[in-house]
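---------- Forwarded message ----------

FYI, see the DUF5753 domain-containing protein record below. Original note from H. follows.
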Amino acid sequence: MTYASWYARTESGLAALQRSLIDIESGVTRQRAWNPELVIGLAQTEDYARAVLTACIGVLGVPNDLDEVVAARMQRQLILDREPHTFEFLIGEWALHRTVGSAAVMRAQIKALIDDLDSRPNLRIGIVALSAEFVAATLAFVIHDSSAVEIETVTGEVIATRPDDIALAERTFALLQNQAVYGDDARVLLTRALATHTD
């Protein structure tokens, strides 16, 4: 298990970190991700990503390379259309109701998620409802194949590679996956959230 401070990873800005993820994700055939707070990076619209990354730059106080880092995040998304990669994204319903950027940014982001429900056969998006029962204490995390788990903390990133740690992340993901709704049921939650974002 390794830990890297955000400051160690981003001392020259955020773009280098985003670009490093392109190579990592290109080498992974199955990615499973959970985020209770935000739309997962690979599913973010450009404006949503810009708002998230602006906040990250601000809180870290690192050099402002916003245009470069947003471009790198958008480049990462090209992996979504490459076979044989598969993606399973779980998003907490709270992420759909909080405002990132503006109401207009949120409406566009939610509409993009609705489109993604059916448009990519290798991408499965589930929404875990606000009313879902508590099943595990967990931060945002990503499982790469069954070889590594990335966990985001306030101060940095933990990368776990021990088999028992990976197995725990997979069990946790499965519990959340069992609670998630998909397809038309996910569309209901997305549409409900869409209606809450008014100017």
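H. also flagged this: The CA atoms of residues 134 and 176 lie 9 Å apart.
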